[in-house]
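Lecture notes, part 5. Sequence design as translation. It can be helpful to think of inverse folding as translation between two languages: the language of shapes and the language of residues. The source text, in structure tokens, appears below.
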């Protein structure tokens, strides 16, 4: 991966108990709604992507490791005593259009997590972690229904590393309950990704081939236990600041959030939610980005649109965005052509306002757009980041939240397809 760092305000939501963390609204086909409130922290986009996408290394063993033999920075996890085993929609709050999190219950505790289609492991801060970054978040304590497994897991990324151990506990998403869900407890944390963020963990929703030890990701356990009418989930990301409209839906999608038809595209590599584009056009013109087609990854854990370094640099030259955004109305339309369907992004969809404090806010809302047109904003930038994904999955482009806000996205494991439909805002 290239080492260029692009700062991005990653904003997360916290669920306030005083407002009722599980205000469930029952609909047809087992759909329940959970409302959230917001807070925000700053993390660099590159740091965040490095953590979410870096290959996670672990000790491959046929039987659980003797956890006493594994040391993490001087801390030795102690084995637990054996304890007696005793269609859902989560409302996501959008703060400044940059990151979406929702609630999940592990054991007896509620956590705020990123639901990430670009990774497959389930990470959560553990009470065993003594680092400052862990202490700033809700820390997991095993419930009476937990099981000690003791598998070690490590992630090394550009600005730090995490060490953890995989154990299991009961997990709840609304009224969906999964027994013995494996979770990676973070027991040592070096780096700023978690310390400077407002979320407590990450729930990976990619394919099981990406998961450690061949354990099932959460959604695969939901599939296995036949909890849903349809084995699909979907994301609707509101573009309205401080709205409570964003949501992830398990078991289907909300047709009231669509402003047009849904088109489905086959997954070409059951690792990421990866599909193939015929071309990427700039103002309808073929600029040579996809001579043999382009791999695209639909990734809800990445805020920006990323592309291979050389291609992304070329795209920035072609868009030629003025720092003061004075050429907003002259900026080109970008088009991702997938299976004959053209998905357009206008300039207001891919431009971000750079404020004096370094935060970046997408321009796809009326308040920001008016400010630019009236010349009251100081600076603007494109919501792009160069990123070289290695073989065999790469080279590839990532369609992050900038794209997934304009288009409601559906992830279908029954047919192994990704669907997009223009979102209603």
């Amino acid at each position: 991966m290239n080492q260029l760092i692009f700062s991005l305000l990653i904003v997360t939501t916290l669920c306030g108990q005083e407002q009722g963390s599980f205000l469930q609204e029952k609909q047809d086909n087992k759909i329940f709604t959970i409302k959230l409130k917001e807070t925000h922290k700053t993390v660099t986009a590159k740091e965040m992507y490095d953590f979410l996408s870096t290959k996670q290394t672990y000790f491959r063993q046929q039987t659980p490791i003797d956890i006493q033999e594994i040391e993490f920075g001087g801390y030795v996890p102690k084995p637990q005593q054996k304890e007696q085993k005793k269609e859902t929609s989560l409302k996501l709050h959008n703060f400044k259009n940059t990151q979406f999190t929702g609630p999940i219950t592990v054991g007896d505790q509620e956590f705020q997590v990123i639901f990430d289609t670009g990774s497959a492991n389930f990470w959560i801060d553990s009470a065993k972690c003594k680092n400052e970054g862990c202490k700033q978040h809700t820390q997991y304590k095993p419930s009476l229904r937990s099981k000690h497994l003791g598998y070690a897991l490590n992630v090394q990324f550009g600005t730090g590393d995490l060490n953890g151990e995989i154990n299991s506990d009961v997990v709840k998403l609304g009224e969906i309950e999964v027994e013995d869900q494996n979770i990676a407890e973070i027991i040592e944390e070096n780096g700023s990704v978690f310390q400077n963020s407002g979320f407590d963990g990450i729930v990976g929703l990619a394919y099981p081939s990406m998961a450690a030890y061949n354990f099932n990701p959460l959604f695969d356990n939901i599939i296995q236990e036949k909890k849903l009418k349809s084995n699909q989930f979907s994301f609707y990301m509101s573009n309205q600041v401080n709205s409570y409209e964003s949501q992830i839906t398990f078991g289907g999608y909300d047709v009231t959030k669509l402003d047009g038809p849904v088109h489905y595209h086959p997954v070409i590599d059951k690792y990421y939610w990866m599909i193939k584009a015929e071309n990427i056009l700039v103002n309808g013109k073929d600029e040579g980005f996809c001579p043999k087609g382009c791999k695209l990854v639909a990734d809800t854990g990445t805020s920006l649109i990323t592309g291979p370094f050389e291609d992304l640099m070329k795209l920035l030259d072609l868009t030629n965005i003025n720092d003061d955004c004075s050429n907003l109305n002259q900026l080109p339309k970008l088009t991702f052509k997938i299976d004959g369907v053209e998905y357009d992004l206008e300039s207001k969809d891919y431009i971000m306002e750079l404020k004096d404090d370094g935060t970046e806010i997408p321009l796809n809302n009326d308040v920001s757009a008016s400010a630019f047109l009236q010349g009251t904003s100081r600076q603007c930038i494109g919501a792009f980041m160069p990123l070289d994904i290695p073989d065999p999955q790469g080279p590839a482009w990532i369609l992050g939240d900038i794209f997934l806000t304009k288009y409601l996205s559906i992830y279908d494991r029954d047919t192994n397809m990704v669907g997009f439909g223009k979102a209603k805002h």
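The translated text above is only one of many valid answers, since several sequences can fold into similar shapes. The chain is about 10% helix and 40% strand.
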